[in-house]
What does this fold into?
Amino acid sequence: MTFISIEFLLFVALLVAMYYVVPHRFRWVLLLAASYLFYATLSIQFIPLLLVSTAFTYVTGILIERQDEKRQKKRLMVMGVFVLVMFLGWFKYFNFVNDSLRAMAGLMGWNYDIPYQDIVLPLAISFYTFQAISYLVDLYRGKLKAERHYGYFSIYFAFFPQLVAGPIERAKKLLPQFKAEQRFDYEHVSYGMKRIAWGFFKKTLIADRLAPMVATVFSRPDPTGSEIVLGTMLFSIQLYADFSACSDIAIGTARLFGIKLTENFRQPHFAVSIADFWNRWHISLSTWLRDYIFIPLCKGKKKRHQIYVAIIITFLISGIWHGAAWSFVLWGLIHGIYRVFGDATKHHREQLASFVRLDRTPELHKWINIATTFQLVSFSRVFFVSDSVAQAFHHARLYVTPSSWAPTGMLHALELFSLLDFVVFLFFFTAVHVFQYIERTKGSAWDWLAGRSTLANVAIQLFVIVSVLVFGVSSEGFIYGGF
Amino acid sequence: MNKIELYKTAFINGLDVVADATFEEMQLGVTKEWDSIGHMTLIAELEDAFDVYIDSEWITEFNTYQSGIDLLKRLGVDFGQ
It folds into this structure.
């Protein structure tokens, strides 16, 4: 049962009806059963791993809290994090490490005979492992108390709206919401349904409509440079639409139960710098990396170049979190270099902007920064979307070749679309941008919408639903669901 | 050196600003030298100068000269001396 299915909508509708009928003291049973059922429909073979990880983190948390000495707490926390990382490492990184060692042994002429293991990646393991790590570290830091109610704790680990692809939540934020008695609130339910519908809109009318074109470009043995440029930029749009749609549906579904999840995106393709981009893209992962990797790495570092090293390490971890392949490591490294280079050249760039008088036209300066940031991000995604490092470098070279950007080549590359597909995509892409424009100018498009007449609300909702039903297409799952 | 002088010295060292800067008007993201990377070097200077541990949650709360003093007071630093 994926998010984009009638079964999911019926499942959620039935659950919401039951949730507000069942007495509060039994609701955790309902949410937990629903979460495990949802996970089982997607990946039943890994239910035991989810259960073991939950039980392990629960017990370790209580043990950490019971220790009197800080040193003992730390030892237990480190042991707990190590075991969780080992779970993740075995399933996600064993073959990556194994293949890398075999390749290195081949180069060095060493004998290396550990065979390839046929290991399937458990669904959502990267997401729930990061939540579990944050729980143990926060306990050690004294930011929260160990949860004693095993039921509520298990829901924190497996809450179905955000289990598969986040947002990555902190126990401190989520557990009190599960425990509070949520009363039926029309505003919550209405908002939740609108967010779900908007997620369906972006997924079926933007992401999944672009997916075949992007797949065509990157599966071709010899794509043209213009096709790579166009395909990569379309992939950027697809990835944002796909992942933000997944977050919209997660946030909307959780809100139906009165639960508020973290916003994961703030129009990242309108970022004015790489630092700004990471404040807007996959926010729950960025803040996780900031709090549990970057800040600890910066402790005691008084020189800028030492902070640069911490930035590079953090982005390398971000890259390897996304996928067990060197192309993801390189993608992370590129973003680390962007961030460091951006900081090191900041004053020179400001001087240049002043010299060419860009500082006198701040709006133009802002849009130049937005376009530059989008191009830098898109270029890095060549490494994200390519199947191998060799292919990624070949595609990256094509991306930066000037002739790849020739208008005639780009027009030719647009033939990836049929005329109808192109018109349909442009229409709905414009609709998403109208929504984003309202967000930028009015603060919140949802609040703006709530202030319109009932007729306008009904018309907009009908437009969204009819568009999805008539023009929506759906492929299997979400890109980030594979991480 | 009193605590306020110690605090200002942390800014001078952490952000590489001049000694006669207008410290009271400094803000994260507004003062040129106080960007997100300078913020981390400033935190390290403050932790070292006052022998405190500044948690990630507080690091994001600390965004002005005055909020830094308030934070250090919460951590037990007495600025009355």
Remarks:
- Chain A has a mean pLDDT of 89.
- The interface with chain B takes residues 141, 143, 275, 290-291, 295, 298-304, 307-308, 310-311, 343, 346 of chain A (CB under 8 Å).
